[in-house]
Amino acid sequence: MVISQGTFALMIFTDRFFMSLVSPTHVAATLGGGVAAFMCMSLWIGLLSYGNALVAQYLGAGKKSLCSRIVTQGLFIAGLCTPILWFMGYGVYLSFDGLGHDPQQLVLEKQYFEILLAWGFLTLFKACFSSFFAGIGNTKVVMIVDLLGVVINVPLSYSLIFGYAGAPEMGIAGAAWGTVLSNFTALVLFFLFYRSRSNSTEFSVADSYQFDRPLFNRYWRLGFPSGLEMFLNVAAFNVFILLFQSYGVTAGASAAIVLNWDLLSFVPMVGLHIAVISMVGRCMGAQDFQRLNSVISSGFVLGLMYSGSLALLFIFFRESLVGVFMTSATENDAIFQLSSWMMIGMASYVMADAVILVAGGVLRGAGDTRWLMVTSVLLHWLMVLAQYVVIVELQLGPKMAWMIFVGLILALALAFTLRLTGSGWRKHIPQEWTPVEAANL
Fold first, then answer.
1. pLDDT on residue 76
2. Please, how many CA atoms are within 13 Å of residue 310, restricted to the half-sphere of its CB?
3. Residue in 404, 350, 330 with CA at minimum distance from that of residue 22
4. Is the Cβ–Cβ distance between 56 and 282 less than 8 Å?
5. What count of other Cβ atoms lies within 10 Å of the Cβ of residue 190?
6. What are 131-143's pLDDT values in tens digits?
7. Contact of 23 with 330, CB cutoff 8 Å
8. Residue 51 class from Cβ within 10 Å (0-12 exposed, 13-18 middle, 19+ buried)?
9. What stretches pass through the bilayer (predicted)?
């Protein structure tokens, strides 16, 4: 799962690197448009991704036929949510005009956003199958599909951006279409793996294509808080990015560069988060609480070792890492200096990210989704309020705004740790599992 999520980070990283070969404005536009598109999709991705925990719980309880039914309920949800996704996207598209961005950047980020959002339903359907394979522990399938996706995406995006190998020169639109086509390929591959003879037999796939109200309701009831949490958090992050970009192209390009390196640390750890959710869910289903404690400790060891190594890399080699994006089209001393300073702040919170993802995976796998939603959303939007005061009212510089963002990550890590060390989240185990057992017997 770490490798799988790493391929996703690599796709975004290469898109922004290719844009750095064009101009700083293009780099800033991919950040603004990309985050806005993901914000619209995040509500439904978060909801559908909870299928991982549900599949793992039923697998742990020995009810394999219900694992495939979870996929079917997820596909129903994805289909129902697609028109809502487009409606949300239309509203966000109109809101770009009031953000005060550079006119050239505004045109580019709207173009990038429009393509990604129109085909966002591919990501939703893909999440259903990815969650199934993560939930049953067959993460090799997820890795293979995502690796093939990035193998297709990188050369395809390069060709479409710059007009190589007979492809039209599409600029930032080419980067978006490369992502769409790789998502479509990944979805087809997931479906072929899902319908394979061994998988169909083991999980009774042929009998799963039916609406199951108890499963649908449970999927929605537990998944929606996760989806709402992700949506509101990404929305808060999006507002922060848009406010930060109001400082100008220098600040916008610097944020894109630093957050690009952040992707290569954070997104692979999302793979660990997914693995923890799956293993915790399986322990829930089997009522194996001794192994649950082992999963928790192992998750923290792996997360802190990985993030600690990256923190050292980001501190001691920050200027070299920023220099990767200092191409002939984007070379600018102000961007270099601000980005190098921001890398120090990023290095200080990567280990906190690991704590958040591991602790959050345990709590999510146990069904403690409402507490996660309330706490995480509250802290994120307090950060946005502070950013508004700093950037708009007090008109302080980008360094102060960045320090407030770093403070948010550290506060989240502390809150999640305190929750995990308490006993409140454990009460969800019997209350969430027993009713569903009764409903499906």
1. 92
2. 26
3. 330
4. yes
5. 23
6. 889 888 888 888 8
7. yes
8. buried
9. 27-50, 70-96, 116-136, 143-165, 171-194, 231-257, 263-283, 295-318, 338-359, 371-390, 402-421
